Amino acid sequence: MTKVFKTLDEQVCILQSKGLIINDEEETKDILLRENYFFISGYRLLFMESITNKMFLPGTTFEELYSMFQFDRRVRNILFKNLLIIENNIKSITAYNLSGKYGIREDEYLDPKNFVSDRKRKKQIDDLLRKMKRQIRVNGNQHQATLHYTKKYGYVPLWIAVKVLSFGIVSELYQILKVEDQENIARDFGVTRENLIVYLPILANFRNLCAHEDILYDHKAQRSIDDTKFHEELQIPKVNDEYIYGKNDLFAVIIILKQMLRKEDFFLLMSEIEYEIQILADRLKSISVEKVFDRMGFPMNYGEIVRL
Q1: φ, ψ for residue 177, nearest 5 deg
Q2: Contact 200, 173 (CB under 8 A)
Q3: b/e for 36-47, b at 16 or more Cβ within 10 A?
Q4: DSSP one-letter string for 104-172
Q5: Which residue among 63, 186, 243, 280 has its CA within the 20 to 30 Å range from the CA of 90?
Q6: How high is the pLDDT of residue 139?
Q7: Terminus-to-terminus CA distance in the chain, angstroms?
Q8: Element (H, E) at 32
Q9: Kind and range of the H or E element at 242?
Q10: What is the spatial distance between Cα 227 and Cα 17, in angstroms, rounded to a whole number?
Q11: Is 221:205 a contact under the CB 8 Å cutoff?
């Protein structure tokens, strides 16, 4: 079925036809114009009677729907700035470890011999090194530090090159490092190499989602983290011997950040999220904030993770 353009008046009528209460049509139309009907309606499932009956729950207002949109945006911004901290940390620590061991010139730290010696992964290594060289070349032309090193020294050291490499690329780089290099980097974060192998792609996935302003609160990563002491100490419920929260959801990212951020950064992160949750809870009328928690993967006692 072909989609057709809908005017702001028609968009309001569609929402009203589904049972959404519009208290101020002009304000609603202004919000729909600025924020986009499609993105705001992406939160409608929380307020629907069921998956099959797509009418809004009785009493649901546009203000509630928009409050959920705003909550997700604010939490996304909070998470994003903390993911950027981790991104910078992993880039800096990786560059420090590899530069000290293999050298500072591109032909030294990008030598295929520096990586895992597995013939089955040769193509993966070659492809990744090719992508790294391309990002350094293309993105480096727009970065003052890389241009400086290229012009003055004829090469770009890794501690400069990582600035123009994406988090995804650095995450892939970690996967092909030798075990001893993975362990050295993981040790600086206080986690195991096995955990960091899983954590980095999840963090890169959520980082990109935040950067592109996609819906965050109910996003699920493709991979799940291993059970941690935090799952047990928070007494997260299980179904079929599997924890129902904190595996591949937003709370899983919180568990990862608990381990990888500095204590003061993590405390601030959780304080800011708690503040936004309180605002949302005050604005929700047709549903409870606990329903939002469930979709986020947050246990009711989520805040206790700060003191664990």
Answers
A1: -70, 155
A2: no
A3: ebeebbbbbebb
A4: SSHHHHT-GGGB---GGGHHHHHHHHHHHHHHHHHHHTT-HHHHHHHHHHSS--HHHHGGGS-HHHHHH
A5: 243
A6: 86
A7: 52
A8: helix 25-35
A9: strand 242-243
A10: 45
A11: yes
CA–CA dist 134, 72 (Å, integer): 35
Distance CA 266, CA 210 (A): 18
R_g (Cα) of the chain, nearest Å: 23
In this prediction, residue 42 carries a pLDDT of 94
Q: Dig out the tokens for 58 from the structure.
A: 């009785």
Specify the 3-state DSSP secondary structure of 239: strand
Of residues 207 and 4, more confidence is placed in 207
Rounded mean pLDDT of 284-308? 98
| Identity of the amino acid at 35 | E
Buried b (16+ CB within 10 A) or exposed e, 279-306: ebeebbebeebeebbbebbbbeebeebe
Contact 156, 106 (CB under 8 A): yes
22 Ramachandran zone, left/alpha/beta (phi>0; psi -120 to 50) = beta
In this predicted structure, what is the pLDDT of residue 119?
A: 86
Structure tokens, 28:
């609603």
Task: Supply the mean pLDDT for the chain.
Answer: 96
